[in-house]
TrEMBL record:
PROSITE patterns found in the cross-reference section: FCP1 (PS50969)
GO-annotated biological processes: protein transport
Purpose: Essential component of the TIM23 complex, a complex that mediates the translocation of transit peptide-containing proteins across the mitochondrial inner membrane.
Native source species: Magnusiomyces paraingens
Residue intervals of the FCP1 homology domain: 194-338
Stretches with biased composition (Low complexity): 63-78
Name of the protein described by the UniProt record: Mitochondrial import inner membrane translocase subunit TIM50
Keywords assigned: Membrane, Mitochondrion, Mitochondrion inner membrane, Protein transport, Transit peptide, Translocation, Transmembrane, Transmembrane helix, Transport
Length: 487
C-alpha cells in the first residue's frame, strides 16, 4: 500500500513540472518583440599572419605576388576601389593605415636595397671620376729627359693632338708589359771574332725541328725531324745557333734538352717570353737579338714569326711527322756555303732565292760554277801537258788526273772530319761532362750564401755582387780540382 502511494506522488510531481514548462513557453511566445532591427558583426574569415611584408622581403619572397593573386580573385569593383576613398563606416583606421603602407611598398625595395643602390651609385661616380682624372693625368708632358728621348716622335705640348698622342703612348706602355719581350736585349754581347762564329742561325722549334701530337692511348709524344742531330752537329761548326720557340719555357725546356743533351750545339735558347705580341700575332723580333741583322738567318715555318724581318728568313713548310722528310739535310750545303764566304750582309743573297726552292736552286747554281771550274781546270792541265816536252821526249805517259775538287769540297771534307771527331768525343766523355756539370751546379748552390733573411733585411744583391760571388766560387772549384789532379 505504501509503495502504491509513493508512486502516485512521483507521477503527480512530473505532471506538475511539465505543465509549468508549457506555461513558460506560452508566455514567451506571446511577449512582443522589443528590437525591430539588429546589426550583425562578422569577424574576418582570414587570419593575420605573423610574417609581415618586410620579413618576407628580407627572406627573398615577393610579397606583391601574394597581393596580386588575392586581388585577381576578388570582385572587379573591389579591385578598382581606392582604399583612401572608402567611406564605409565599418573600416577602421588601422586597416586604412595598413592599406596605405602596402601601397608605398609596391616598389618591392626594402631599406637594405635602397642603401645598397645608394652605395653603388657612389661607387660608379667615384670610378668615373678616377677614370676621367687618370686619363687627364696620362696626357701630361714627359716626366724627364730620358722619357722624352725615348719618345722622340711625341714632343711635349698641350695641344689636342699631342695630348692624345701621349695618352695613347702611355696607355700602350701599360699593356706593353704583357706584349713586349722581357728584355730589350735577348742575347748578351758577342765575343770577339775568333771565339764567335760570323753568322747567327735562329731556328724555330715546333713543326721545324720537332713535331708534337696527342693521342688518347699515349698522351703527348714529340718526334725529332729526320736528320736533326746531323743538322745541328754539323752546322754548329759554322753558326752561332739560337733556338727560338713560340711556346713558354716551362713547356719547351724538356724538349730542347732532348734535342741537345750535352749542350754542345745550341748556343742560346729563347722562348715565348722573348717574343712580341702584336695584332694577335706572336712575332720573333730579330732586332732584339743584339746581333747585326746583316749576319742573322732565321728558319721558321710560320710567317708571323718573321713578320718584322722577312728578308732574313728562310721559310719552311711545317713538318707533320713524316719519317721520309729530308728538308734539313737538303739545306746544309747552302748554309755551309753561306757561312764560308766573306759575306757582309746575307739579306741580298736570300733575296735572290726568294720564291724559289733553295736546295734545288743552290744545286743548280753550284753545278754551273762547278762545270766552269772543271772546264778551266782541264784546259790548264792540257796546256801543262803540251808544254811538258821532257815527258814527251822520254815517252813517259802523263798520269791520269782525278776529277778536280773545288775549294768548297775541301772545306766540306774538313768539316766532316771535325764533326766525326766531336761525335766520338761526346760518345766517350758526354756522360762524364753531364756528371761534372751537375756536380758544379751543386757546388755553386752550396757556396751560395744568399738567404731569405738577407733578402728581407738587406734586399736583393746587386749584379756586380752576384758576378763577383760566382767568379769567386768558380775560382775556388778550379783550385780544388787542380789540387786533386796534383794528388
Amino acid at each position: 500500500m505504501n509503495q502504491l502511494l509513493r508512486s502516485l506522488g512521483q507521477t503527480s510531481r512530473m505532471v506538475a513540472a511539465r505543465s509549468s514548462a508549457t506555461a513558460r513557453l506560452s508566455v514567451t511566445a506571446a511577449r512582443p518583440a522589443t528590437m525591430t532591427a539588429a546589426v550583425r558583426f562578422y569577424s574576418k574569415d582570414s587570419k593575420d599572419s605573423l610574417l609581415s611584408d618586410d620579413i618576407l622581403a628580407k627572406a627573398g619572397i615577393d610579397s606583391s605576388s601574394k597581393a596580386e593573386s588575392s586581388n585577381s580573385t576578388s570582385n572587379t569593383s573591389s579591385q578598382t576601389k581606392d582604399p583612401e576613398s572608402d567611406s564605409s563606416p565599418h573600416t577602421s583606421e588601422e586597416q586604412r593605415q595598413h592599406w596605405k603602407d602596402t601601397a608605398k611598398r609596391a616598389s618591392n625595395k626594402t631599406t637594405t636595397d635602397l642603401k645598397r643602390e645608394k652605395h653603388s651609385n657612389y661607387f660608379y661616380l667615384a670610378s668615373l671620376g678616377a677614370l676621367v682624372g687618370g686619363s687627364i693625368y696620362l696626357t701630361r708632358d714627359w716626366d724627364d729627359a730620358e722619357e722624352e728621348l725615348k719618345h722622340k716622335d711625341v714632343p711635349n705640348g698641350y695641344s689636342a693632338d699631342l695630348c692624345w698622342a701621349r695618352f695613347k703612348t702611355r696607355l700602350g706602355g701599360v699593356f706593353g708589359f704583357f706584349n713586349e719581350p722581357v728584355f730589350d736585349k735577348l742575347l748578351p754581347d758577342p765575343l770577339p771574332a775568333p771565339y764567335t762564329p760570323p753568322l747567327t742561325l735562329v731556328l724555330g722549334l715546333d713543326d721545324v725541328l720537332v713535331h708534337s701530337e696527342w693521342s688518347r692511348q699515349y698522351g703527348w709524344r714529340t718526334a725529332k725531324r729526320p736528320g736533326l742531330d746531323y743538322f745541328l752537329g754539323y752546322l754548329s761548326q759554322y753558326y752561332e745557333i739560337v733556338l727560338f720557340s713560340s711556346n713558354y719555357m716551362i713547356n719547351s725546356e724538356k724538349v730542347v734538352e732532348g734535342i741537345d743533351k750535352y749542350k754542345a750545339y745550341i748556343t742560346y735558347r729563347l722562348y715565348r717570353e722573348g717574343t712580341t705580341y702584336r695584332n694577335g700575332k706572336i712575332i720573333k723580333d730579330l732586332s732584339l737579338l743584339n746581333r747585326d741583322l746583316g749576319k742573322v738567318i732565321m728558319i721558321d715555318c710560320r710567317e708571323d714569326s718573321y713578320a718584322l724581318q722577312p728578308e732574313n728568313a728562310i721559310p719552311l713548310k711545317p713538318w707533320e711527322g713524316n719519317a721520309d722528310d729530308k728538308e734539313l739535310i737538303k739545306l746544309i750545303p747552302f748554309l755551309e756555303w753561306l757561312a764560308t764566304q766573306p759575306i757582309k750582309d746575307v739579306r741580298p743573297i736570300l733575296k735572290s732565292f726568294e720564291d724559289k726552292y733553295i736546295p734545288d736552286e743552290y744545286q743548280r747554281r753550284e753545278s754551273i760554277v762547278r762545270k766552269k771550274f772543271e772546264d778551266e781546270w782541264y784546259a790548264e792541265q792540257a796546256k801543262r801537258q803540251k808544254n811538258d816536252w821532257a815527258s814527251a821526249f822520254l815517252g813517259i805517259k802523263p798520269p791520269t788526273q782525278a776529277a778536280p775538287m773545288m775549294p768548297q769540297d775541301y772545306i766540306r771534307q774538313e768539316a766532316q772530319k771535325r764533326y766525326e771527331f766531336i761525335q766520338n768525343e761526346l760518345a766517350e766523355k758526354g756522360e762524364k761532362m753531364l756528371a761534372d756539370e751537375k756536380a758544379y751546379e751543386q757546388k755553386m748552390l752550396s757556396e751560395q750564401r744568399f738567404t731569405l733573411n738577407k733578402l728581407v733585411t738587406e734586399g736583393l744583391p746587386k749584379p756586380e755582387e752576384i758576378q763577383a760571388a760566382a767568379l769567386a766560387a768558380e775560382q775556388k772549384i778550379k783550385e780544388e780540382q787542380k789540387q786533386q789532379g796534383q794528388k
